Structure formats: structure tokens, C-alpha cells
Amino acid sequence: MRGVVMYAPGDVRVVEREDPQIIDPTDAVIRITATCICGSDLWPYRGVEPVDHTLMGHEYVGIVEEIGADVATLKVGDFVVGSFCISDNTCPICRDGYQSRCVHGSFVAGAIGTQAEKARIPYADGTLVATPGQPDEDLIPSLLAASDVLGTGWFAAIAAAAGPGKTVAVVGDGAVGLMGVLAAKQLGAERIIAMSRHADRQTLAREFGATDIVETRGDDGIAAIKDLTDGLGAHSVIEAVGTRESMMQAIGSTRPGGHIGFVGVAHDVALPLDNVFFAEVHLLGGPAPVRRFLPELIDLIWNRKIDPGKVFDQVLPLDQAAEGYRSMDERKAIKTLLTL
Ligand SMILES: [Zn+2]
């Protein structure tokens, strides 16, 4: 089969890989229908994370081609959406809703690599969720978004305690930040402030439910959020970047007693604990337990209540993956969908 391998920073190739096969009885092999490039794939692309002939891709939807003897909830031919984290969905951590930290967990990125024609998914029952039937073509981008960016934005909004009567601020206008806006809207937030300096992303943020846009950053950005909230700060802040600056902006924008959901992947970020201490805010972050939310997200998409697929503004065949990486790296594309 063909699959994307990153040989070195900036060196993305589509090469022949060995076809995956069932190894454990809890495995499924799926034929991937659509996959995409994640903002986190740009970390190795830019040399920030180590990379050496790495199998790329962790977002995916597809059709079950083969199942192991112990797979109970899926059958061959099912259309499935999978999480970017493998989970058994039965251990104590999974039962508490933190499937991204399953005791049998692992990451799809690197180990499996779903920017490919097929994938072997371990713990298939605990990782994949079947849709009610074969989806209409136009639902596929939205279902694919549920695999990571929507699930991650959703987790961030839940972690930030977004809901009715709340003012939610979103730091970061990448795909996850935009999905955080959508999630906050769906969860009933009263006011949603998107922090963005890019006109195209501001437009999309408004389509997803943003009521206000703040273009400034840092102390000016914090002051702008306070101006909009009677000097108090937002109740709920979604942090979707992962840098010291974005995290300090999130902490500074949150009112005492408020909640921050932080889902930007951090790399060697140190925070001044004095500021964090006196901010007196709730903090919850980490890789999103997408599996917890998949049944609900699939239902919302299937019934056309939400349209997260709009976040894809570039579609390319898998063979042109390198061009997709380049577009996202140069911020010419928000998110690139790869077709097979
Ligand atoms: Zn588990």
C-alpha cells in the first residue's frame, strides 16, 4: 500500500509500505477513506520534534476490511471513525473518560501512520466507532474532523466548562481553536470571543459561532478580553496553541474561579508558577480523550447539527501529501484533507 513517510524535517514522501495485517485478536484492519494533515504534524516537519523515516498521520475514517476473533462491536464493511489515541475503553482510566491515557493506550502517530491506504487498529472495539450506515460523501470531512480536531476542540471546551451563560475566549485560530469555537457554541455558551489576526479564519470563526473577535495578543489581548467582560476576564478559556505566550494569554484572560482547557501540544514550555498560583483558575489539558466524545459527535454530524468539515480548506490526493504539508507550514491552508 501507499503511505506517507517523513524521512527528515521538510522531507515528506509517499512510498510503498507493507500492507497491515491482523496480529492480535482485538485488531481491525481498515481501508482508509480519508485522512488529513494535523498542525502537530508540522512540529517534526519544522524539526522541533525528532523525525526519522516516521510513519505520518493519526486522523482517519475508513471501512473495516478485516477483524480479529475478539472484535465484538464492529463488522467487515462498517464505516468507522477512530480516535488518534488507541484505547481499550474498558480500563479504570478509560471508564473515567480519559481514553487518551488508557493503560493499554498508544498513539496512532508514528506507530501506525494513517496517511496511508490502510491501517491496523489495535483494540478496535475501544478505539473505533461505527457510523449508523455508509455516510453521504459530503459528511466525510466532518466525520474525519471528529477523529482529532473536533474531538480536541470539544474536549477543550468541556475542560474550560463552556456552557449556557458563559463567556468563552479561544486562544489560537488554527483548526483546533476553530473547533473549540464550534464546540462552545454547541454547548450553549452565551458569548464566544475568538482571538485571531487572520481575516479568513475570523470569517470561519464567526460561521462556527464566534460573537466577538480580538486581534491583539499578549498583554493587549488580555486587556481586550477584560474590556469585553467588565474587567473580570472570561469564564472559560480554550488554549489551542501550546506556547508559553499562548498559555500566559489564556491564564491572563481567565477570571478567578474560571476554567482553562489547554490542548495545544507543549514543547519545553515553562510557566511562572507565581502567576499561575495567583490566577486562581482551574486547569485541565492534555491529549484529548476523543473516544469519549465520538458517539455524540458522530450523532451530531450524522443529523447535520454541526458542520466541522468546513475547517478543511484544501483537498489533495494522498500522492500530493508533500504539497499539503508545505501549504499548512506556510499557513496557506488551515487544514488539508487527503483523499484516497
Ligand atoms: Zn483503557
Radius of gyration: 19 Å
Distance between the amino and carboxyl termini: 11 Å
Overall body shape: globular
Mean of all residue-level pLDDT scores: 97
Number of strands: 18
Ions, cofactors and other bound molecules: zinc ion
Tally of DSSP helical segments: 13
CATH architecture of the largest domain: Alpha-Beta Complex
The third-level CATH topology of the largest domain is: Quinone Oxidoreductase, Chain A, domain 1
Bin the helical content. 25-40%
Helix/strand/pairing category? alpha/beta
Contiguous runs where pLDDT drops below 50 for at least 5 residues: none
Whole-number count of domains: 2
Corresponding CATH superfamily of the largest domain: Medium-chain alcohol dehydrogenases, catalytic domain
CATH class of the largest domain: Alpha Beta
Bin the strand percentage.
25-35%
Biggest β-sheet strands, sense, barrel: 7 strands, mixed
Protein name: Threonine dehydrogenase-like Zn-dependent dehydrogenase
Organism: Nocardia neocaledoniensis
Pfam families: ADH_N, ADH_zinc_N
Keywords: Metal-binding, Oxidoreductase, Zinc
